[in-house]
Amino acid sequence: MLGLTQKDFLLLLVVVVLTLLAPIILNPFPVNSSLGQSFNAGYPALMQRFAIFGILVIGFNILFGLTGYLSFGHAAFLGVGSYAAVWMFKLLSFNIIPAIVLSVIVAGLFSIVIGYVSLRRSGIYFSILTLAFAQMSYALAYSVLTPLTNGETGLQVYPSDPQYLAAEGAPSAPHVFGLPMAESTTVYFGDWQFTFEIGYYLCALMLILAFYLSIRIFRSPFGMMLRAIKSNQTRMNYTGLNTKPYMLWAFIISGMYAGLAGGLLAAMDPLTGAERMYWTASGEIVVMAILGGVGTLIGPVVGSGVIKYLENIVSKINDNVLHGAFNALPDGLENVIIKIIHPFVGEGWQLTLGLLFMVVVIFLPGGLVQGGQRLGALFSRRSRNATAADRDAARQKPAE
Amino acid sequence: MKRSHFSRRGVLKTGAVAGAGLMLPTYLRAQDSGFTNAPTGDTVTFGFNVPQTGPYAEEGLDELRAQELAVQHLNGEGDGGMLSTFSSKTLDGTGVLGKKVNFVTGDTQTKSDVGRASAQSMIQKDGCIMINGGSSSGVAVAVQGLCQEAGVIFMAGLTHSNDTTGKDRKANGFRHFFNAYMSAAAMTPVLEKAYGNDRQAYHLTADYTWGWTQQESMAAATEAVGWSTVQNVLTPVGAGDFSSYIAPVLNSGADILVLNHYGGDMVNSLTQAVQFGLKGKQVNGKDFQIVVPLYSELMAKGAGSNIEGVYGSMNWNWQLEDEGTKAFVKSFGEKYGFPPSNAAHTCYVQTLLYADAVTRAGSFNPCAVAEALEDFEFDGMGNGPTLYRGADHQCFKDVLVMEGTASASGNANMVGYDTLKIIEQTPRAQVEYPEDHPMFAGGSLGECNPGA
Asked: Which parts of the chain span the membrane according to its record (chain A) (predicted)?
């Protein structure tokens, strides 16, 4: 189906269903219940981020997962894409099509330059080079190229901007041919409430396309070549193959994915700032990929989803919410439980993330996807008889 | 991508569910009230969006304390704080328009992107009708823009850049805190009196919006009284080590160093300037002096005894003697055990001002609230008679000029709180400016946006 094997098609189908039904799946609790107020994640802004960062990490995974080259400066492409998109809004119009197209192109060109230089080295030197380029871009955007980036305040669209192609009466917010991104329909279903937003569905569509493309790349001869580079680049060179062009292409594709993500971020919210390129943002991408499962197809989407969920949902749980959640318990016990949970929520969300990351890296080197596979194996009859040899194989080649 | 596997049962099931969903009597489209997040039921939700991690986390957490206190007072808990001293008497401790006030909190991490994401979640998920907070002008400007688009009111917290109510002003955004221009206007007469007219100033400036507007304002105001600006050097934010920027000051011929830095940067640059012996130096036959245009308690705490004899300005200080200040300091001190910072004060006041405007307008509609806030004159909030100017949504009130001193109490916990002394309360008339002043030009409020 669509040039995919049965198994891959099934995976694609799962992703399609999950993304299309996300507004429902992510709002499992009634909107006014305390569970709903704490844990519902089905509001457009967050779902957009799930999709956008999913795209970003899928792209990163094409580079890191297939070739094993760890780029530590991927956020630079995201930032460049966002700046390109916002400039399109400022100069042309709020139509997002030119903005997204240009952000992909600009990020692609930018990755040719960075890739050409960085790929002359491998391993840790490659990582440091990409990191250096990203920090350089950050510093440029922050304080040198301020006419282009508006420095720390960030680039945004002002009513006084020219917008040469803006049609009369077009919405003064990002739109596709007049259909505003922010337009949404809310459906009330008893106590439940689901919001379906145009912007989210655009991101979802892009995510599905990006995911499909990534499957095709993984299964193509090109993907096979990249994997060969990962397993032994020296041997590839000895057989007379020039691996450079393959590496560069992987780097460019990966950069263009990041540019797309950056363009979409700007399309959902027409503002961008230099901190999108900061090294912690690059680090976050690496953490997302490793958490989900490097080199797996679905891992990047899982990893980015988990981190964005923690960042947006767990960081907002404060003591008030905790008291609300545990007020059925006797006072003494309630306070003890809240004391225990307190360091892990609210401003302590990064602690939770850190612990989760440690657990994953130590016990599930193949990421959460490997955890899922283990769980699956536990319940399926066929794999229960799987021998220790299988597990050893999984350990050597985690979740591939 | 189609695989026609529609079973009859599947189609029937889907159809039935979809039909039931559509026919549910509670089915509504968007909002009927005409504005975003109109509160239904007996509660209303405020969003407190402050940095809880990152360089300005201390300020953010102090803001959060004050916001929590404001909500308690609005709901009639505690001693009511400034409700009794506020000149407008509409708030009576029964919530706002009879609705109990709830709040949600978010962490901006001092990053515009994160601040916007957090504000979006407050608006879209928690149904917040007002966002309050911010401890960095970049974040405040970004979140203010978001609130304008979404159609909710933004009550800015600590943001000192001219741009917040200048170039980036928005119809749905309001600022109670003072700004860089006011700091410069208030400090210059004091500096002139203390240091004379013939001075050579050297500026070290944090390289972002706030730093630029701060430097521009200080240079313009001091040059008007005869000072000259030797040089302005931009320093990256969060540089940590400023020694390479401070060493050239020694040989530049300048006799004043103006540190346009905030937070941890100011603590580091001031400490290093003192270590380089700038304070005791003689240049051009005069004592070398250091000036820090924007002070905060938390910075003073970090800089310890280095701030002795250094002038700066503040929006408000807990040592003021008026009734409003006393009431606020008392209830804050009783709850938390130490005095509030001026970041805490501005967030507390902003929350009460919003609640009062809603009550006077009789509606939560952002446009009605904005109208109630515009050109609103009030008193009893710690700053004396204050005006919320309608033309740019900036508050005008007295500005405090502070001097760093040795700790009066010797109590280590009070460093920062009692190591700043109020030396002058600059009257409001002296810091006022027309709304189209060149430093604030280039922006327009636009139309008030009620959203939905």
From this structure: 9-26, 46-64, 71-89, 95-117, 124-145, 198-218, 246-265, 285-307, 349-369
